[in-house]
Amino acid sequence: MDLHSDSGAVAVFSARLARALDRCDRADAPQLLFEAIRSIVPFEFVMSVAYRREGPPDHIGDTFNDPTTRRAMDLYLDGTYILNPVYNAYLAGLKAGVYRLRDLAPDNYFSSDHYSRFKVRQYSDEELGYRTWGWPAGREEVVIAIELPEAELGEISLYRLASRGGFSDQDCSVLSAVEPLVGSVFRAIWRHRPRPARNERRISPLDHLLVDFGKGTLSPRECEVAHMILKGHSGDSIARNLGISITTVKTHRQNLYAKLGLATQQELFSLFIRSLQEKDVLAGDRM
Predict the structure, then answer these.
(1) In this structure, how many other beta carbons lie within 10 angstroms of the beta carbon of residue 117?
(2) If you write DSSP's letter for every residue of 190-217 in order, what string do you get?
């Protein structure tokens, strides 16, 4: 679609977006926003969450309508999100914009067979090489990332069958053009959602595993630094939160990498993911 030439689609998009904004405090607001997006870039289904650095994602909405995919959504919110490239890109500082999911995923990220025990399955025809149990197969995913207050990140993910061409460059261009408007409406919806008190939020698999990760090998301070790295904190943020200098942070990081036999932050994250097997947090019945 060309936004410059298809005035009818633009009019429909504008009207639906305005309705979503008018009803941003209502339960149907996310669905109205999804329908506005669908009017300019059709999709098969959509899901939306808001990520935070501590605790599981908040579910904003989706268009799943059968028990299997509903269960898949529950599994994602309960734990498999921690494997998702969008979540990990968020921890690394992902900015607002439109992204193809495959562009956010590291090379060979899911090539190891140690993922076979998770509530995910490997599939060679998937963009990432895996999918959560029950998730619809063979889809291409495009993500609209939306920066939120409180250092959170909104995600609206659109899906189409890859075998039918997925999303074109023009589709992504159209989404990029409207992303600022979509982001503003999303933030209005997000602000009107109930906000659980910090101490009322569920403990996430990440928080649960970090209790023991590194114990017995690292010093208490090195454990703190490792945990903050895994939560996505920069060196400056670690120094500020722990009340130490950036030079001391670098020293602790070098020492913990040496003790764990690692060279990079990616290797640290991979080691952490492998520890999921031992904790049985993401392990479950196989398909």
Answers:
(1) 14
(2) HHTS----GGGSPPPHHHHHHTTTTTTT
Q: What is the pLDDT of residues 99-126, one digit of tens each?
A: 998 888 754 444 433 333 344 444 344 3
Q: At what angle do helices 246-260 and 220-230 cross, to 10 degrees?
A: 90
Which bin fits 165, alpha (ψ -120 to 50), beta or left (φ > 0)?
left
Which residues contact residue 239 at a Cβ distance below 8 angstroms, ignoring those fewer than 6 apart? 245, 246, 248, 249
* Rounded (10°) CA dihedral 211, 223, 109, 123: -10
**Token pair 């945990």 in the structure block, residue:** 227
- Torsions phi, psi of 145, nearest 5? -100, 135
What does the alpha-carbon distance between residue 56 and residue 284 come to, in Å, rounded to a whole number? 18
pLDDT higher than 50, residue 284: no
For 86, the token pair is: 């969008």
Q: Could you tell me the pTM of the whole model?
A: 0.67
Q: Residue 112: its pLDDT value, please?
A: 37
CA distance 190 to 152: 10
**Helix (H) and strand (E) counts for the chain?**
11, 7
Angle of CA points 243, 247, 253, to nearest 5°: 90
Token pair recorded at residue 49: 């969450």
Q: What is the pLDDT of residue 94?
A: 92
